[in-house]
Amino acid sequence: MSSLVEKIAEIKESLAAQHALTLDEVEQIRVLFLSKKGKIASLFEEFKKLPAEEKREVGVVINELKNFATEKIQSLKMALEAKVEDKKEDLTRSAAPIVLGSRHPLTLVRQEVCEIFSRLGFSIELGPEIEDDYHVFSALNFAEDHPARDMQDTFFVKPGPDILLRTHTSSVQVRVMEKKRPPIRVLCPGRVYRNEAISARAHCFFHQIEGLYIDKGVSFADLREVLLFFAREFFGEKTEIRLRPSYFPFTEPSAEMDVSCNICHGKGCGFCKHTGWVEILGCGMVDPAVLEEAGIDSTVYTGYAFGLGVERMTNLKYRAKDLRLFSENDQRFLSLFQSVH
Ligand SMILES: [Zn+2]
Question: Distance from the CA of 312 to the center of ligand 1, in angstroms?
Answer without folding.
Answer: 14
